[in-house]
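Hey everyone, long-time lurker, first post.

I ran two proteins through the pipeline my lab uses and got sequence/structure pairs for each. Pasting them in order. The first:
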Amino acid sequence: MATNNLTIALAGNPNSGKTTIFNNITGARQHVGNYSGVTVEKREGFRRFRGRNFQVVDLPGTYSLTARALDELVARNAILNDRPDILVNILDASNLERNLYLAVQLLELEQPMVVALNMADVAEKMGHKIDDQALTRRLGVPVVRTVGNRNRGTEDLLATVAGVAQERKQQPFTMDYGPEIEAKIKEVWSVLKGVAPEKYPLRWLAIKMLENDKEVIDLVAAFPGGERVRSVAENARKKLQGLFGEELEVVFAERRYYFVGEVYRDVVSVNNEISQTTSDKVDRVLTNRVLGLPIFLGIMWLLFNLVFTIGAYPQEWIENGAKWLGDFVSLYLTDGDLKSLVVDGIIGGVGMVVSFLPQILLLFLGIALLEDTGYMARAAFVMDRIMKSVGLHGKSFIPLLVGFGCNIPAIMGARTLENPRDRMVTILVAPLMSCSARLPVYTLLTAAFFSESYAGTVMFSIYILGIVLAVIMAWIFRKFLFPGETEPFAMEMPAYHIPTLRSILTHMWERGSLYLKKAGTIILAASILVWFFVSYPADVSYSKDFEQLKAASDAAYNANVNDGEADEHEAEIAKLDKEQAAEKLAGSYAGQFGHLIEPLIKPLGFDWKIGVSLFTGFSAKEIVVSTMGTLYSVGAAEDDTAELQESLTTDPALSPLVAYVLMVFSLIYTPCIATMAVVRRETNSWKWMSFSVLYSVALAWIVSFGVYRIGMFLGY
């Protein structure tokens, strides 16, 4: 650690403010990737401080290092294998006793560590007075107070980290588990010595082997001489289990909790007069058995109405910009395939998708506010009764809520569930949540076929339908594919926080930039492919000689020029142009494919154009909109959604009912290729990925058929 480059790993419980502190330290100098071999998000950032370069890693939030869930395993392996120079353990001061359990486990890893006592202001308001010096003595590590959402204490934290790095001392923490256990720890430790590489803490390895930690046992067994260590540890574990009469993992946990309780009572004094916090008072309303669910639905309804109404204004600005760009480029390109490709395919297709960026950002703004204020956990609690009825619990609802932003982190979020059955069911139903990629489809169709006063409610109904279908399918999967006992619901209710502007903007920037990157890569490529399949073959056989008909009309008009007939002549030419473009489109590769699959979707009220749009949506849902823009352009560059909306409403094959059914189908069927790839990696199975694709398409057809037939029966 004598070099000027230091690696700092931030560890802590979920909702401890860890990511907020990460953002405070790194600012905009951060990036998001994945840990090697797993789809767990890895956030890294950089900071120059007092002549040193700090590389900061934000570890997955976790309550312990027992490695039951993938998050726990990744966090533990990142510390053990990557060997960061300094660990910074973020503690939620308002929930100090529970947070200390992870702190003890981190200390046992024998690495230099600093404790950040975060949310100290919240603890004080609750009447909790924490003695920092006493906590430092009990844990043997420096303690720094921080208030992450106000960016207080960040500089002090970095200065302390730099000081600990300068000392270059190994962490001197040892917790006494009692004479019987300590004797066996020493016994396993003595045979581990000389077998395990130096980078692994021997006492920690011994404890984990006695706890019957499969990952650690397999790790040690792979060392030369490791089988003897495993045999010694197994014999020691059996003797201790006979002595205590229960699993050693439980015994170790009880001893840690006892130690944590002692530390907490030693360093914290509580003012009992402050018996009820503001969070408690708010929760009496928001988590009320009667009011909780209506309030949640009301919040979601408000969010989607705001997304539609407020986002319409900047969307129009972007549309006008794309239209201007298309017109400008048209001036400098001669008529032909190149002009059509650039104006119709690239600017028209990509510009159409980019115009929905404001709605995407507003949606992520709403989700970030729900997460950062602490309401997301309350929503899970409110939904627990419904989730329990289908064999899951409220904790499974958290990944589903995240799915409103993107299905990929929603599926990845299922790894926080300890029960493998819950994890699989959550992965399979998470794609039913309306991700932001579907929002352009909803926005386009609601604006075209429904009045502004109903548009937000129509979109809200689609999102609610996704939740209802997820609940129904979860019940079916839990009953027939993954039967078993329901796990009890246990989840932390974090104190309400005022989100920081930096945190909100960072969240919006990360997701917005990913959306734009997709527009510049996948959607660009798909738009070019769609343009090609729509434009070729060039030599389509027409039912009429349109060029001759237009020439004859021009000649007749020029021979007998009459101002009153000008409008009639223009209308006749426009009609011939539209008929020619329609026949050209029908004879294209896209048209041929669309007519091939039309019999499969005709019962849903869809024609071949919708079929082509839905098919291209398998790559990314945003492409449904750009494909429609190309298919309905009928020879003109549709650079803004207003013109496309007009084309859609004048199509006799479309109606408000068909538009709604199309939104329903877009909601349910396979979200995108990237999501399916994540399902494959999270389940480690091609079988379950294929099942996810097939069941979602079948469900989309069945539900859409039902909605269409019911709508027809009711006269819509």
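...and the second, right after it:
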Amino acid sequence: MIQHASGAAAGPGRDGPSAVASARTGARFLIPSAVILVLFVVVITAAFWIRLPLPDDAVHLAEVEVSLDGGPFETVTLPHRWPAAGPNANTIATYRGVTPRTPGEPAVLLISGVRHDLHLSVDGQNVQPNASGLRRDSSLGATHVLHLRPTERDVSDIELRLERSTGFSPGYLSDLYLVTEPAFDQVRWAWLVAQSDFHLATQVLHGTVLLGIWLLWLLRRKDPVFSWMALLASAAFLTERFLLLIEATELRLFAVAGFGLIGYAFALALIGAPRPRWVKVSIVLVPALLLGGAQSGLVPPMLAIALSGSTAILFNVMGGFLLLRHAWREAQWDRAAMAFFFLSTAWYGVYDFGVGLGGIDAAWFLSHHMRAFGLLLVLFLLMRWLATSLDAVDRANVTLRTKLAEQKQELTLLHRKERVRIREAAQESERKRLMRDLHDGLSGHLVSIIALSENGARDNRLIEDTARAALDDLRVVINSLDLEDDDLRLALSGLRESAEPRLSRLGIRLDWSTAQLPEVRGIKPGNSLAILRILQEAVTNAIKHGDNGPIQVEAGPSGEDGVLLSVTNRTSNTKPGGNGQGLRNMRLRAAELGGEVRFEIYDGVARMSLVFPRDLGAAERDGEAPAIAGSEIGGDPHP
């Protein structure tokens, strides 16, 4: 999904383009990484330097009296903290103090940080905190802006009560400041933002991103990055929703270890490293053992929480350094961004330990707020990965189109060459066929004429007949040339014209009937000559072995897709032959057409039948038969 970039610099003697590419790679990694590093420093130090602004005339309530669980009041200096006791040790802390007022003027009480539920009364009247009521876990810290009604007195008695419903989080009250309404207008925006409850916005953002991650996981279920990302986001969202539903938010502290382990597995998936089995088992086993030990009393609850948080911190640090090392080696700044997020989360885990133990004077626990930054970072990186993937697809499309154009041009050239080769091969094949036909037919007759002349033959009639046979054979070859579809009838007519004079001289009547000849497709010189040769051979055999009776040549259909040509004559033979060279050549030629030759004698009638398909082109494409070899006319089909 992410385009890997090499960060190796060009060595001495490298070409200029290599050095330029290396410099660009370094810039693409180092510049974003430097920005991320600056943001990392800002994030981890923000809790120490961000302070809410105060008007110059703000009245600071530095000292108040406090009573814990109805005990005696004692004077304390704000900010004040009282420690956690245990999971069931609920505490009520009551603070009271006196602050000067301007008679007849409304005032605003500013509390920058407080933990646990706040109840306030001023001059005996309850003041409703106007912080959002959406926050369910007040033990994590809150900011309050409380508007006080005008009074005619120059002082007001303030009583503030904090109720702790869980003993895991220590109580805390920050400094109190009283300002007038006009003075508050100068700093209103900062305090309203601070008191805004981001809980709902975080949940909406979390749910939206979670839906997007689930969709990506459904589309890429074999991608471990999205699998672990979906598990981490789902566990954090559903666990918190469930715990809020059953009002047991303190159990979330035991699940922190599982979140840290899932985050570590997610970091391993990001760098393409295998996830060990012990990590997968520990995701469920460690929180279960900690919770079970705390509930059974085998492990002190505070120790179990400390172990859970320490486990999460440890694995966040491990995941962060793994990502940081991989980012440096592979020059991937997005991995560096995730590394700094892991390290920031670990840092604020340590910060929360300091807040909980009293080592850091602050009201807010901040590690859980890193989830919002993590969601924003994941959303940003998903958009970046999507854009990178689309860029890669665009580049691949351009490359494919270029290669396709090149292949198309190459295939066009090859097609032209192949057409030339096929045409030349066809011409060569036709030349060889024509030479073979002339050799097997015409040359045989010419040799006979020469032999008769050299032997001084006195029978001019024999020489004349041989010469006429040679002329007829030449006409058959000529008539077969340059034929196309529907030209078979024309070729047969040429055969009839050459045969009729010869039969007439012999006193034999020729009955010719081709009116029923169906349309024949795929006619070429080669297959048309084969048909004419078969008919010529059949007529010759009828003359030689018949009883000088009429010879019938008929053409018609054979079934739905066949053609039948037959030559019939009377004969005194009673048994059909089948071993003569002429009949063998006729059968070979018929096989070339995709058909067959049948010869039979019945009741003194000899009949030769040629059956072949109407589409000779299909038979030629199928390659039905080998080429004919051997002699041509003159073979004897009879015994």
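Reply from user beta_strand_b:
Welcome! Quick read of the second one: Confidence is low (pLDDT under 50) at residues 1-17, 131-135, 624-639. The first helix runs from residue 16 to 49.
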